[in-house]
Structures are given as structure tokens and as C-alpha cells.
Amino acid sequence: MNLDGSIFVLTGAGISAESGVPVFQGTNWRGRSHYDLANIETWERDPALVWEYYSHRRSSARNARPNAAHIALAEWERSFSRERFFLCTQNVDGLHEAAGSQQVAHIHGKLFESRCSGDCGLKPFPDQNVYDPASLPHCNCGSLIRPNVCWFGEQPFGLNSIYRALDECSIFLAVGTSGSVQPVASFVAMLRQRPHPARTIYLGLEEPANAHHFDEVHLGAASQLVPEAISRLMARTAG
What we know:
Layout: E1 6-11, H1 13-17, E2 28-29, E3 32-33, H2 34-37, H3 40-45, H4 47-61, H5 68-77, E4 85-89, H6 95-99, E5 104-106, E6 109-116, E7 125-126, E8 145-149, H7 159-168, E9 169-175, H8 187-192, E10 199-204, E11 216-219, H9 222-238
Parallel strand pairs: 1-4, 1-9, 4-5, 9-10, 10-11
Antiparallel strand pairs: 2-3, 6-7, 6-8
Helix pairs in contact: 5-9
């Protein structure tokens, strides 16, 4: 295996579940679908409900700590120049940064940031507050403040840099992602269509929906599999 090229790491809910962060897949919130609540149409119809939901998510994730998988990826990143290692996460929890990762592309945004829902140009800002549905936060321009996350019906963040990194990678490592949410689910299939192939590896508790596109699928806890996979990759390079 050749690590002369660059590494693309994609992480999903499975890597943070071991840190106590609740997952979307197969669950709901107070009888409501996560997919309905994390939706631009729901925000436009009922922003109080959406803020109640995201306030609960902030409360649930606030005390989470990175696990061995997050830490191993942060340590691995330090072995490469910034041009050769790209970490893209579907998670909004910030655990990669807490583990020491320096460059993280948050394709779905950040739970502990907020931004203006209008067009005043206010940049996203750190925000750990939880909000009373009866007293929602407003920007100085008068528009509602919203969580800085990408909802269903919106354009994911940072796609240009993400697709550029995908095109350049020689190793694609996916951890704990369902393989069912677009556009992320199509990443591994895109790599198979390239004229210059990349090695594709999946790690997680269950097979993803797009498992057939991967060269390797290893099932188990991310906290165990990620350090092991990194050790194998580094050993093959040294050999």
C-alpha cells in the first residue's frame, strides 16, 4: 500500500457514539424524526421547535469527550503535512478538535456555533447557549439567530475543498458513517470511477449501505478499529 499520496478521512456518527453523543440513525427525539427536525422547512415553519431540539442536543453533547478513535486520528494527522491529510466529518459535535485535530471540514456545520438567519453578513460565532422556545435569540439586524448547521434542504458546507481533496487522495478511510446520506454516501463510489484508484477502507459497528464500494470493510468499535487500522497502514508503508 502506498501512502505517498494524500489521506482522506471521513467520519460519521459511529465515531462519536462511543463518547456518548446520540445518533440519528434508528432513533427519534420525543417521537419526532431527526430528519424532520433538522430540516430547513421545519425551521421556516417552527423555529421555536427547532431551537428546542438543538438546545437539547447541545445539552446532551456538552460533556462528551473524545475517545481513542478521535485521538488516534489527531495523532495521525501530525505525521503529514497539511496538504496530505484531510479530515471531513458529518458530525457537528467538535470532538475531533477536542482531540487535537487541526484541520477539520465540517460538512454539516457545528453544533456549538450560531449565525444570523438573514443576510446581514454576520459571521458564525461560538455559542454554547440553550434557548427558551418562548424567547428566541435575534441578531442586531432583527433576524432570528439559528444554529450554524446544514439542514436537509440546504447545501452542505465546504464542498469545493472536499471534492478537491477526494480527487487527490490515495487512501480513503471512512469511520462510522451510514453510507445513506448524500452527498457523503457517494464519495467512495466517485473514487472507484477515477482513472487513478484510491484504496478505500470502512471501519464501524455495522456495514454501511454502500459497503459494496469499499475494498475493505472491518466491523467493530471505532475506538479499537481506528488505532489498529492506522498502525497497519503505517506498517505497510514502512515495509
